[in-house]
Amino acid sequence: MRSLLVIPLLLFSIGARAADPSKILRITFQAAETGFDPVKVSDYYSGTVIEAIFDPLLSYDYLARPAKLVPNTAAALPQITDKGRTYRVEVKPGIYFADDPVFRGRKRELTALDYAYSLRRFLDPKNRSPYAFLFEGIAGIETPDRHTLVIRLKQPDFNFSHVLAFSLAGAVAREAIEHYGDESAARPVGSGPFRLKSYTRSSKIVLEANPGYREVVRDGARLPRIGGVEISIMEETQSRWLAFQRGDTDIEYQLAEVAPTFITADGQLKPEFARRGIKLERSVDPEIIYLYFNMQDRTVGGLSKEKIALRRAIAMAYKIEDQIRIIRKGQSIRAQYPIPPGVAGHDPAFRSSLVYDPRAANGLLDRFGYKKGPDGYRRLPDGGPLVIRYSSTPSERDRQFDELMKRSLDSIGIRLEIHKERFPELIKLENQCRLMMRGAAWIADYPDGDNFMQLLYGPNAGQSNNACYRSPEYDKRYERSRLLPDGPERDQLYREMTRIMETDTVWLLTDSRYRNVLMQPRVKGYTKHPVMHAEWLYLDLE
Amino acid sequence: MSLWQLAWRRFVRDPVGVASAAVVLAFTALAAASALGWIARDWSSEVAVSYAPPPFMKEELLGEEMRETASSAALPDYGIQDPIAKELAEVRASLTEMAKGEARAGSLVFGADKWGRDVLKKAIKGTETSLLVGFAAAALATLLGTLFGAFAGYHGSWVDDFFNWLYSVFTSIPYLLLVLAVAAVLGQKGILTVVLILGLTGWTGIFRLVRAEYLKHRVREYVLAADAVGASNARRMFAHILPNVSHVVLVQLSLHVVLFIKSEVILSFLGFGVGVDTVSWGTMLAEAPSELILGMWWQIAAATLFMALAVTAFSLFTDAARDALDPRLQ
Amino acid sequence: MSNYLIRRLWQFIPTLLGVVLLVFFLFNWVGGDPAYLLAGKIASPELIENIRRSLGVDQPYWVQLWIFVKQVATADFGVSWSTNERVSQIFATRLGPSLTVLLPLLVISTVIALGAAMLVAYYRGSLTDRGIMIACTVGQSVSILVYILLLQYWLAYQLGWFPVQGWGSTLGENLLRYAALPILVGVIVSLAPDIRLYRSFFLDEIGQDYVRTARAKGLGEGRVVGLHVLRNAAIPITTNVMMQIPGLLAGAFLIERFFSIPGIGREVILAVERSDFPVIKAVTVYVAIATMIVNLLADLTYRALDPRVQLK
Questions:
Q1: B214 in a structural domain
Q2: B77 in contact with A at a CB cutoff of 8 Å?
Q3: How many angstroms separate the first and last alpha carbons of chain C?
Q4: Which sign, positive or negative, has the C-alpha torsion A429, A432, A435, A439?
Q5: Which of C181, A406, C149 lies closest to B269 in space, CA to CA?
Q6: Looking at residue B28, which CATH number applies to its domain?
Q7: Could you tell me if A465 lies within 8 Å of chain C, comparing CB atoms?
Q8: Is residue B91 part of a domain?
Q9: Rounded to the nearest 10 degrees, how much is the dihedral formed by the CA atoms of C124, C130, C135, C136?
Q10: Does residue B51 fall inside a structural domain?
Q11: Interface list for C 74-113 with A (CB within 8 A)
Q12: Which of chain A's termini has less CB crowding within 10 Å, N or C?
C-alpha cells in the first residue's frame, strides 16, 4: 500500500509527532538470528535487525522502483572521481549514537572516523567477516576531516555506492566494540532508528524506537512512528500462519507453503481474508534459483558436443512448470534471465532458449550415442555407466526437489543418485568443485546486475561460481562489463554472456519467488522494498 | 509339555491375541504381496491431478496443468552460436506431432499426493517398507543386544565392565549425532541406512534386559551342572541359557519392531528416511505438516490409519504372547 | 556399600573418557566443517582458513583433544561457534524452559499413569482392564508427530484454548499459558506406555506370595493393591521415573520445535545443524554425567528400597 507523499505543510508547525510507544509492530523470523555485530554475521535475519539499529551512509528511497540510492547519514550521494576509483562522502553533523553506558554519560556524535573504523573492520582478517568480499575492492580509507570520508578502490567500480548502502555497512562505535568485546553481537550500539531493548537468543528480539534518533520527518511525522518492534522466532510454518490468523502478528511473509490458502490462482487475496481488512502485497524477490552443472566434473562437465548435449537434454527434461506449480504452489515465476526483475540490467524481453521438451531431449541423447542398456537406463557413448549425482540436504523441503529431479531424469532414461549431505559439508564440497549437480539460489546483495553476472566469472570458481565455470569468452565480456555503468552497452554484453551460459548449458535457470506479504488492517504505509529489509522505519500502526 | 507348547495353548484361548495375530498376518501378507509386485507396483505413477481429494470433497487447490508448449519460435542469438544447433534442429524436425497426455483422475478413494500419486497405493507400498525396516532393524538390534548382554552377563568382571562402559557411552551421545554418524558413513543409501541407524543405536535396552537375565541364570543349578560335565562357555551361553531366556528376547524383538516403525517416522521427519525411489509411512507423515496446513488431510489420515492398525495389532499380539509365555501369570 | 559407591564413582572416569573420545571422533569425522557455514555466501580460501584458525580447528587433533579434556575438567566449554554466546550461558538460559515443560509433564503423567495402572490392576482381567489397555495400545500406535500437529491445529487454532506457540518472560506466564498445551501433548503421548509399564509392574507384584498371604489374612483388595503392592511396585516405578530424567536434559526436541520453546532440545538440533561443536560437546558431557549419576542413584534407591538386592 502506498502512502501518500503529501508535501507536509504541517512540517514546520508545532512539534512533529514522535514515536508512539503503544505502537508495537509484531513480526516473526523463520530462522534464528546469530547476533548483531555487522562483521560477525551473514544471515538475512541478523542483517535485518542490524539495518534497523545502525546507520549506513546511504540508503534507498522507500518508494522508488527500481531501487534508487539516496543519502542517509551522508549529506549527499558520493562524489565519484578518478574514473570510478575514488569516492568522497560528507557525513552530516549533528547525528548521535544512542545513549549507552560506554559513552560515560556524554552524547556521542557520529563522524567519518566511525565509518572508517566500521569499514576497516570488514577488512581485518581477525574478524573473519563473511561479507569481507564486498569490501575487498577498497585500497585505502582516509578522513581528511571529522566529517569527510574518502575511499580509494583498487579497481574502477561504479557500483560501490551500493556497498555503502548495504545493510551491514552501518557505523559502529569503537568504544562499544572495544568495551563489549565478545559480547558485541548482543550489545549493539548504533545511531539508527531503533535500539535493542531486550533479547532472548533464538527466541525473541525486542526493539524500541531510539529516542535520540535524528530528526527525519515524513508526512508531518517524525520517523519512526512506531514505538517498537517485537520479533519472535518461529520455525514452523504452521505456527507462523496460525499466529497471524489469530492476530498475534502484524506482518507475515514467510508463508510460501500455505499460499494457496489465502491466495487465489490468479494472485489475489481470497475474499474471506480481504473481508477482515487483511492486505496482501505481492512482489518478486530479486533472486534467481537455478540448477548448475559442475563444469569440471568428468561425467557432466566439459565443452565437447557430447557433454553439451547431455547437459542440454537434462535441462530440457527438467519440468520447471511442476516446480512452480506443485513445489512452489504457484508462488514463483519462471526465471528467463540471470538478472531478476527490479535489478539494474534486467532484460524483460529476454526468453531462455532452454525450453521443456523431453521428447527432443530423448532424441538428442539418442543422436549423440547415449544408448539405453539392458536395465533401461542410458549409458555413456563409450559404453560406460552413466549416473547423475544430484546433491541436496536431508530436509523435507529438498526431498521434493529430489522427487522432481527423479521424475525428470526418468523421463529421459537417466539413472539418478541422490547425494545427501548437510549444508556446511555441501558448501565445502561445492567450493572444492567436487559436486556434480545441485540446485542453488542467489539473492541480490545490492540491486545491480553485476552481483549476478559475477556468479559465472572464471576466477570466482571455488567461491561464488559454484558451477566452477571457466569460459574465456564469458570472462572477457564480464571484465569489459565491469568498466561500464548501467546502460545499453552493458546490457548488450550481458545478453551475450547469458547466451554463452545457455549454449554451454552451464545453468538451468528455474524461477524467482514471489514475496507475498500479508498485513493486518492496522498496518499502514508498508511496502516491501526489494533490497532494504527493515521497512519498520517508515510504517505506521493504527 | 515344554514352555512353548504350554504358551501356545494359553495363547489360542485369548481372543484378542488371536485376532491381533490375524491382523499381523494380514499386514505381513500385504507387505509380501507388495514386495513381490502383485499389488501397488505402480504406486509411483502419476495417475491423478496434484492433491486430488477423496470423492466426497471438492477442492481444486492447484492450478490446471498447462499444455506442453515446446516453443519452436526462433529466438535471437545475440551473435553467439549454439554448438549443437544443427543436431538439435535435426532432432526436432524428426519428431512427429505432440503425443497426447494421459488423462488424470480428478479424485481417488484415498486421494492423491502432490505429484498425483495414489495415496492408497503409497500406503500399501509403505507397509512393505515400514514393516521391512521395523523387522530388520529390530532383528539387528536384538542380535546385538542379545550377544552383548549374553557376554556381559555371563562372563562378568572386565567383560561386563567393558560392555557397561559401551552402554553408558552409547546412551550419553545425543541421538541425533549418532544418527548423523551412521548416515555419514553409509552415505544414505535408503532402506539399508535406516535399518542400520535404528539397529546400531537401538540395542541398548535389550542389552540391559538380557544381561540381567544372564546374571540371574548363570548361578542357577542347571548351568553349574553343565559346567560340571565340561560344557564350554559358548555352549552354556547359547545352548543352555539362551533357550530359557528366549521368551524375554522374543518379546523385546516384538516391542522393538513397534518402536522402530515409529522411530522411522521421526527419522524421516529429520531427513534421514528412505530414499525418493521408495515410500514408507514415515515419508508420508513427514509431508504432513506442510499438507495439513493446506487442508490436505488424506495422506496423513491414510498413513496414520495403516500404521495405527498395524502397530496396535502387533502390540496386542506381543502382549498376548508375553502373557502366554509368562509362567507366573495365571 | 561404600566400596561399591567408590567403585561406581571411579567408573565415571573411563566412561566419561569414552564419551569424550567418541564425541570427538564422531564430530571430526561426520560433524561437518563449521567454517563453511560461518563463511557466508562467498567463501574465499583465506576466509575459511581464518575461521578455522579462530575456532581452533586448524590445530593437530591431539591438541584439540587435550583442550577438550581440559574443558571437561573445568566444565567450561567456551563460546558457541555460531553465536559467540558462552556455552554455560546457553545452558543456563535454555534449561529453564525445557524444565518448565518437562518437569510438570513428568509429574502429571506419572500420577495419572499410576492411578490408571492401579485401577486396571485392581480390575484386572475385566472388561475395564481390557478396554483401557486396548485404548492405550491404540493411542500408542499413533506417532507423536501426528499428535502435535492435530492438537496444535485443533485446540490452539480452531478452538483457541491455548496459544499456538511461543514463550513468555515470567515463570508464571510460561507455566500457565505457554507450557500448557505442550505439557498436555506430552502427557497424552506418554500416558499409554507408562500405564502399560506400571500395570505390568503391579501385576508382577500381585502374582507374588506375599499378596496371597495378605488376602488370606483378610485384607481387602483395595488395601492390598493400594498399600502393599504399591510399595513394592514403587521400586521399578521409581527407577523408571528416574531413568527419564537424563531425557529431560536432552529435551523433547519435537515439542520444543513445534511450540517454539527456547529449550535445550531445540538448541541441540540447532547446534548439530550448524556444526557448533562447543555446544554439542557440552550437551554430550552433561548428559553423560547425568546418565551416570542417575543410574547410580537408581541402583542405590533400588538397594535402599529392597534390602534383598545385592550390589556387587
A1: yes
A2: yes
A3: 9
A4: positive
A5: C149
A6: 1.10.3720.10
A7: no
A8: no
A9: 40
A10: no
A11: 79, 82-85, 90, 93
A12: C
